[in-house]
Design a protein that fits this description.
The protein contains three helices and nine strands. By secondary structure, it is α/β, with parallel strands linked by helices. The protein has one domain: Purple Acid Phosphatase, chain A, domain 2, CATH 3.60.21.
Length: about 180
Amino acid sequence: MCRPANLPESCPGARYVILDVKGFKLGVFTVLGRTFINMKAECPFLGADAVLKELEGKADGVLVEMHAEATSEKIALGWHLDGRAIAVLGTHTHVPTADACVLPKGTGFMCDVGMTGPYASVLGREVAPVIGKFLDGMPRRFEVAEDDVRISGALVDYDETTKRTTEVRLITVRRGGGR
């Protein structure tokens, strides 16, 4: 299990994993944003720097996932790691963003790759009780929705020769039942 690298060492899980993809060693790690997230996380920027240093000589390239609420924090990390990571991909807000790009020094970026789950919903929950709570403020049980289930993510093309990402694009696979 890979946990956010900027959580305390006492938390379970590895700070990073290294995947062997046809002889290419891909380091993968997550950092947790701090803005609007109530967790005891260290600075994600310094945490990412530390893991990148630790992966030197162990990985041919690194993919960084940032689990954060604030888009500004995710965007800033993308720029901070430009030229040092294959890609910085954000998660948490459940809604894919339309900002997939390659930054000037060759790092792919997307602020949020979107959720895996039911899109005919309010962030994965049945619509009616969520709207009801917005209307009257009364607490309700929010059941998990089941319609229009999708897997969302990003497809990243990387050139091993130039050590630059050439393209990042949203990919969504639907199970059916969509509206």
